[in-house]
Specification:
It catalyses: 7-carboxy-7-carbaguanine + NH4(+) + 2 ATP = 7-cyano-7-carbaguanine + 2 AMP + 2 diphosphate + 2 H(+). By secondary structure, the chain is α/β, with parallel strands linked by helices. The chain has 7 helices and 5 strands.
């Protein structure tokens, strides 16, 4: 058993506000962080990669993985990975939004579990948000609990991984406030689904983010078109 000083956590870090705060919480929890980022053909892939690298530098993370998952663009079915489907900007979708990428978190967690097993990490952090998310089925407590069980079932007996979701029951307002408390460099994060130079301000992700800042009475430090 590794001693407490060297407990390791793999943080799934997209470069967005939620995953960045999660990584800062992992640091506060005393873990040595190994960061994992996925390039999966999303519209803002290059901008998210820049955010990931900036945040790794802020957190002094040396051990990091940048993983390419090209097949999401092959299957399409999501406005994030299929250029022929427009990203909705009117905020009136009901049910699972068109920005949902099929089983994305399940695939991310499976790949991360393989890395965790290799690195002998005890935990994986993911910034899923249940109540204030866009209604994605792979962001719930129940899903995380079931996939944790499956991962531990399908790995070596000596592998015992806990999936930690520190934000799952927080609102975007609480996330902004918590990030402020931990001095998270929010100016390095990127949330927009559509644009890479200035955030669009009208997609679901921008709306949720801007509303969180507004309710927290804090100014969002990134540039917006609208």
């Amino acid at each position: 058993m590794s001693n407490k000083a060297t407990k390791k956590a793999i943080c799934i870090l997209s470069g967005g506000m939620d995953s960045t705060l999660s990584s800062y919480i992992a640091k506060k929890d005393g873990y040595e962080i190994i960061a994992v980022h996925f390039n999966y053909g999303q519209r803002t892939e290059q901008r998210e990669l820049k955010a990931f690298r900036d945040i790794c530098s802020d957190l002094d993370i040396v051990n990091k993985y940048e993983i390419d998952i090209p097949f999401f663009t092959q299957i399409g079915a999501s406005a994030l990975t299929d250029e022929s489907i427009d990203v909705p900007v009117d905020g009136v979708e009901s049910g699972v939004p068109i920005t949902y990428v099929p089983f994305r978190n399940g695939i991310f967690l499976s790949i991360t579990a393989a890395i965790a097993e290799k690195e002998e990490a005890q935990a994986m952090y993911i910034g899923v948000v249940q109540e204030d998310s866009s209604g994605y089925p792979d962001c719930t407590d129940e899903f995380i609990s079931d996939i944790t069980k499956a991962i531990n079932q399908g790995t070596k007996e000596t592998t015992n991984i806990e999936i930690i979701t520190p934000l799952v029951h927080l609102s975007k307002q609480q996330i902004v406030q918590y990030a402020k408390e931990l001095n998270v460099p929010l100016e390095h994060t990127w949330s927009c689904y559509k644009e890479s130079d200035e955030a669009c301000g009208v997609c679901d992700s921008c709306r949720l983010r801007l509303n969180g800042f507004k309710l927290a009475n804090i100014k969002d430090p990134i540039p917006y078109k609208v």
